[in-house]
Specification:
two-stranded parallel sheet; 6 strands; four-stranded mixed beta sheet; alpha/beta; 204 residues; globular
Length: 204
Protein backbone atom coordinates (compact mmCIF):
# COMPACT_ATOMS: atom_id res chain seq x y z
CA UNK A 1 0.00 0.00 0.00
CA UNK A 2 1.49 3.33 -1.06
CA UNK A 3 1.50 6.44 1.07
CA UNK A 4 1.78 10.13 0.26
CA UNK A 5 3.21 12.93 2.37
CA UNK A 6 0.80 15.84 1.96
CA UNK A 7 2.87 18.41 3.87
CA UNK A 8 6.37 18.63 5.36
CA UNK A 9 7.71 21.26 7.74
CA UNK A 10 11.44 21.72 8.38
CA UNK A 11 13.14 24.95 9.45
CA UNK A 12 16.57 23.95 8.07
CA UNK A 13 16.32 24.36 4.30
CA UNK A 14 19.23 21.97 3.61
CA UNK A 15 17.55 19.25 5.67
CA UNK A 16 14.26 20.01 3.96
CA UNK A 17 15.94 19.59 0.56
CA UNK A 18 17.08 16.08 1.57
CA UNK A 19 13.59 15.23 2.81
CA UNK A 20 12.06 16.48 -0.42
CA UNK A 21 14.46 14.40 -2.52
CA UNK A 22 13.69 11.22 -0.60
CA UNK A 23 10.05 11.54 0.46
CA UNK A 24 8.73 13.93 -2.21
CA UNK A 25 6.08 15.71 -0.15
CA UNK A 26 3.23 17.31 -2.08
CA UNK A 27 3.62 20.59 -0.16
CA UNK A 28 6.35 21.83 2.17
CA UNK A 29 7.56 24.83 4.13
CA UNK A 30 10.71 25.99 5.93
CA UNK A 31 8.76 28.65 7.81
CA UNK A 32 9.03 28.67 11.62
CA UNK A 33 6.57 26.07 12.92
CA UNK A 34 5.41 28.59 15.53
CA UNK A 35 4.15 30.74 12.66
CA UNK A 36 2.20 27.87 11.11
CA UNK A 37 0.52 26.63 14.29
CA UNK A 38 0.72 29.62 16.59
CA UNK A 39 -2.30 29.13 18.84
CA UNK A 40 -1.83 28.57 22.56
CA UNK A 41 -1.90 24.95 23.67
CA UNK A 42 -5.32 25.19 25.31
CA UNK A 43 -6.91 27.71 22.93
CA UNK A 44 -10.25 26.44 21.66
CA UNK A 45 -10.33 28.49 18.46
CA UNK A 46 -7.99 28.59 15.49
CA UNK A 47 -5.89 31.68 14.94
CA UNK A 48 -5.85 33.66 11.69
CA UNK A 49 -2.53 32.06 10.76
CA UNK A 50 -3.88 28.56 11.42
CA UNK A 51 -6.98 29.24 9.34
CA UNK A 52 -4.72 30.62 6.60
CA UNK A 53 -2.67 27.41 6.72
CA UNK A 54 -5.78 25.28 6.15
CA UNK A 55 -6.81 27.50 3.25
CA UNK A 56 -3.37 27.19 1.67
CA UNK A 57 -2.88 23.45 2.33
CA UNK A 58 -6.37 21.89 2.40
CA UNK A 59 -5.05 18.37 1.70
CA UNK A 60 -3.10 18.46 4.96
CA UNK A 61 -6.39 18.42 6.91
CA UNK A 62 -7.43 15.13 8.50
CA UNK A 63 -4.37 13.06 7.53
CA UNK A 64 -4.03 9.43 8.52
CA UNK A 65 -0.79 10.19 10.34
CA UNK A 66 0.97 13.23 11.80
CA UNK A 67 4.62 12.64 12.72
CA UNK A 68 7.28 14.88 14.19
CA UNK A 69 10.54 15.05 16.07
CA UNK A 70 10.67 18.35 17.99
CA UNK A 71 14.17 19.71 18.83
CA UNK A 72 15.77 17.45 21.40
CA UNK A 73 18.84 19.50 22.38
CA UNK A 74 17.15 21.02 25.42
CA UNK A 75 16.15 17.61 26.74
CA UNK A 76 19.47 15.84 26.15
CA UNK A 77 21.84 14.93 28.99
CA UNK A 78 24.68 15.95 26.66
CA UNK A 79 23.54 19.59 26.94
CA UNK A 80 25.18 21.11 30.01
CA UNK A 81 24.02 24.67 29.33
CA UNK A 82 20.25 24.79 28.82
CA UNK A 83 19.27 21.20 29.69
CA UNK A 84 15.66 20.82 30.90
CA UNK A 85 15.08 24.60 30.60
CA UNK A 86 15.77 25.28 26.91
CA UNK A 87 13.33 27.60 25.13
CA UNK A 88 13.13 25.08 22.28
CA UNK A 89 11.59 22.52 24.62
CA UNK A 90 8.20 24.16 24.19
CA UNK A 91 8.25 23.31 20.48
CA UNK A 92 7.06 19.87 21.58
CA UNK A 93 3.70 21.53 22.18
CA UNK A 94 3.56 22.65 18.53
CA UNK A 95 2.94 19.01 17.61
CA UNK A 96 -0.10 18.97 19.88
CA UNK A 97 -1.34 22.26 18.45
CA UNK A 98 -0.81 20.91 14.93
CA UNK A 99 -2.96 17.93 15.92
CA UNK A 100 -5.69 20.29 17.12
CA UNK A 101 -5.62 22.15 13.79
CA UNK A 102 -5.19 19.20 11.40
CA UNK A 103 -7.26 16.51 13.17
CA UNK A 104 -5.08 13.49 12.23
CA UNK A 105 -6.25 9.94 12.93
CA UNK A 106 -2.92 9.04 14.52
CA UNK A 107 0.14 10.88 15.86
CA UNK A 108 3.77 9.90 16.48
CA UNK A 109 6.09 12.23 18.41
CA UNK A 110 9.72 11.13 18.79
CA UNK A 111 12.38 12.56 21.09
CA UNK A 112 15.29 11.68 23.37
CA UNK A 113 14.50 9.49 26.37
CA UNK A 114 15.08 12.34 28.85
CA UNK A 115 12.24 14.40 27.36
CA UNK A 116 10.06 13.05 30.18
CA UNK A 117 12.12 15.09 32.67
CA UNK A 118 11.70 18.54 31.08
CA UNK A 119 10.80 21.38 33.45
CA UNK A 120 8.00 22.28 31.07
CA UNK A 121 6.51 18.77 31.46
CA UNK A 122 6.02 18.63 27.71
CA UNK A 123 5.17 14.92 27.59
CA UNK A 124 2.83 14.95 30.56
CA UNK A 125 0.91 18.05 29.42
CA UNK A 126 0.79 16.86 25.83
CA UNK A 127 -0.74 13.55 26.88
CA UNK A 128 -3.45 15.29 28.90
CA UNK A 129 -4.30 17.66 26.05
CA UNK A 130 -4.42 14.89 23.46
CA UNK A 131 -6.64 12.77 25.70
CA UNK A 132 -9.03 15.72 26.07
CA UNK A 133 -9.11 15.88 22.27
CA UNK A 134 -10.32 12.27 22.18
CA UNK A 135 -7.05 10.47 21.49
CA UNK A 136 -5.89 7.23 23.09
CA UNK A 137 -2.30 7.92 24.14
CA UNK A 138 0.61 5.63 25.01
CA UNK A 139 4.35 6.16 25.36
CA UNK A 140 7.39 3.92 25.33
CA UNK A 141 11.17 4.02 25.00
CA UNK A 142 12.39 1.96 22.04
CA UNK A 143 15.88 0.93 20.93
CA UNK A 144 16.47 1.71 17.27
CA UNK A 145 18.93 -1.14 16.85
CA UNK A 146 16.14 -3.62 17.63
CA UNK A 147 14.15 -2.36 14.64
CA UNK A 148 16.81 -2.26 11.96
CA UNK A 149 18.35 1.15 12.64
CA UNK A 150 22.18 0.99 12.74
CA UNK A 151 22.58 2.93 16.01
CA UNK A 152 22.41 1.98 19.67
CA UNK A 153 20.56 5.06 20.91
CA UNK A 154 17.12 4.74 22.47
CA UNK A 155 14.26 7.12 21.79
CA UNK A 156 11.01 8.11 23.50
CA UNK A 157 7.86 7.68 21.40
CA UNK A 158 4.47 9.15 22.19
CA UNK A 159 1.74 7.54 20.10
CA UNK A 160 -1.84 8.79 19.92
CA UNK A 161 -4.80 7.39 17.99
CA UNK A 162 -8.46 8.25 17.59
CA UNK A 163 -9.30 4.66 16.71
CA UNK A 164 -7.89 2.56 19.55
CA UNK A 165 -5.24 2.39 22.26
CA UNK A 166 -1.74 2.08 20.71
CA UNK A 167 -0.39 -1.43 21.28
CA UNK A 168 3.39 -1.46 21.63
CA UNK A 169 3.31 -5.19 22.38
CA UNK A 170 2.61 -5.80 18.69
CA UNK A 171 6.14 -4.58 17.96
CA UNK A 172 7.68 -7.56 19.74
CA UNK A 173 7.45 -9.68 16.59
CA UNK A 174 9.42 -7.02 14.71
CA UNK A 175 12.45 -7.00 17.02
CA UNK A 176 15.67 -8.00 15.25
CA UNK A 177 18.17 -10.27 16.97
CA UNK A 178 21.04 -9.22 14.68
CA UNK A 179 22.08 -5.58 14.54
CA UNK A 180 22.49 -3.85 11.22
CA UNK A 181 25.73 -1.98 10.56
CA UNK A 182 26.50 1.34 8.93
CA UNK A 183 27.63 -0.63 5.88
CA UNK A 184 24.08 -1.87 5.42
CA UNK A 185 22.79 1.70 5.52
CA UNK A 186 25.23 3.58 3.28
CA UNK A 187 27.50 1.13 1.44
CA UNK A 188 25.93 2.17 -1.85
CA UNK A 189 27.29 5.70 -1.57
CA UNK A 190 30.17 6.42 -3.93
CA UNK A 191 32.38 8.17 -1.37
CA UNK A 192 32.46 5.20 1.03
CA UNK A 193 35.37 3.40 -0.61
CA UNK A 194 38.05 2.42 1.88
CA UNK A 195 35.87 2.94 4.96
CA UNK A 196 35.53 -0.73 5.88
CA UNK A 197 36.16 -0.37 9.63
CA UNK A 198 33.68 2.47 9.92
CA UNK A 199 31.01 0.75 7.86
CA UNK A 200 31.08 -2.36 10.03
CA UNK A 201 30.28 -0.34 13.14
CA UNK A 202 27.01 0.73 14.74
CA UNK A 203 26.69 4.44 15.45
CA UNK A 204 25.95 5.81 18.92
Amino acid sequence: MQHRCEFASEWDEEVLAIFKANIQPVEYSSEDIEMLFNGKLNASRLTKLELSFLDKYPNAFRPDLLTGGPPCQGHSDLNNHTRRGDARNNLYFRMVRAAFVLKPRSIIIENVTTVIHSKEEVVQKSKKKLEKMGYHVSEKILKGVEFGVPQVRSRHFLIASLDSSPDFASLDKCVRTEARTLRWAISDLEDCAGQGDLLNSITT
